[in-house]
Amino acid sequence: MARLKTARPRIASGRPRIDNSVTDAKRYEAARRAEADWRRWYKTKEWRALRELVLNRDRWTCVQTGVLLSGAHPAPNAPVVDHRRPHRGDRVRFFDPGNCQAVSKLWHDTVKQAVERASEAPGRAQVHPDWLGRSLVPVVLVCGAPGSGKSTLVEARRRPGDLVVDLDLFGSMLSGSDLHGWDRGRWLGPALRARNAVLAQLGRRADWPCVWLVVSEPRVEWRDWWRRRLGVAEVVVLETPAEECRRRMGGRSAEALAAVGSWWRDYRPDGRDEIVAWPQGEGGANP
Fold first, then answer.
1. What burial class does residue 19 get, using C-beta atoms within 10 Å of its C-beta: 0-12 exposed, 13-18 middle, 19+ buried?
2. DSSP secondary-structure letter at 272?
3. What whole-number distance in Å separates Cα of residue 29 and Cα of residue 49?
4. Which helix (H) or strand (E) segment is 5 a member of?
5. Under-50 pLDDT residues of the chain
6. Residue 133 belongs to what H/E stretch?
7. Cis before 74? omega within 30
8. SS3 string of 183-229?
């Protein structure tokens, strides 16, 4: 009988593998401890004093919707003091009154949380999301060239409790820049995701008396797309001349100024729209 040879144990060659689970666990634990630290700030006398200061400064009114903050938690109109820019554990930014605003619990739990989720979400965002459903609340579509006065018109016509859905608002919240100074190259995708997430909620819950959706949409076919997709009740188009739009935009970028000419080249009126012709009101300003 042949003798059995004892085989040497094989030793795996190559570099030892790194246990990523240990590294990830350490990172998670460090992030959890950091979050626990700043969450304790909400229980301090300093925060309670700041909260009272901000609510009194903003007259116990939601700065985003104009609704009176008279409810008790968890009512939709309960007061919440929100950080305009994420503090990310920065104590100075956390306790800065200029970084705080009074908002309703409803706005905070829907719009603001959609913004926070959008900043982390991967993938591309759609300008015209084909998965949107019809809104359960009335939607007014406000269209016009950059600088035409869309935001000014909405502020003049909206009622307390109405929601404004404007891409510039989301870009501003995400970037921490002013309404027209945010970097579209960096923030356009997250801003679109946040806007679309808020619009998607309109098909599931009727929380708002009315929603004002601000878009440019010079083409009739895309205004019709919003009519069909969301069930838009009314379309308002501002026909502010290009030279007036550019004058209002002041020192904006060359790209933004060029967008005014592009809007007018693509624009086609529609008899179903409410046309707001310039000038309106005193001094030629749109309402």
1. exposed
2. T
3. 31
4. none
5. 1-2, 4-5, 9, 11-13, 15-16, 18, 21-22, 25, 28-32, 281-287
6. none
7. yes
8. CHHHHHHHHHHHHHHHHHHCCCCCCCCCEEEECCCCCHHHHHHHHHH
Cβ–Cβ < 8 Å for 268, 219: yes
CB 47 within 8 A of CB 96: no
The pLDDT of residue 1 is 47
CA distance 52 to 95: 12
Q: What pLDDT does residue 181 have?
A: 85
Site of tokens 């959706």: 213
Residue with tokens 């921490």: 176
Per the DSSP assignment, residues forming a β-bridge with 165 are 213
User: In which residue are the tokens 């990523």 written?
Assistant: 20
- Burial label, 287 (beta-carbon count in 10 A; 0-12, 13-18, 19+): middle
Using CA atoms, how far apart are residues 229 and 239, in angstroms rounded to an integer? 24
Number of Cβ within a 10 Å radius of residue 225: 15
3-state secondary structure 138-169: CEEEEEECCCCCHHHHHHHHCCCCCEEEEHHH
SS3 80: strand
Long-range Cβ contact pairs of 263-268 (< 8 A, separation 24 or more): 263/144, 263/145, 263/146, 263/216, 263/218, 264/145, 264/218, 266/218, 266/219, 267/145, 267/218, 267/219, 267/239, 268/218, 268/219, 268/220
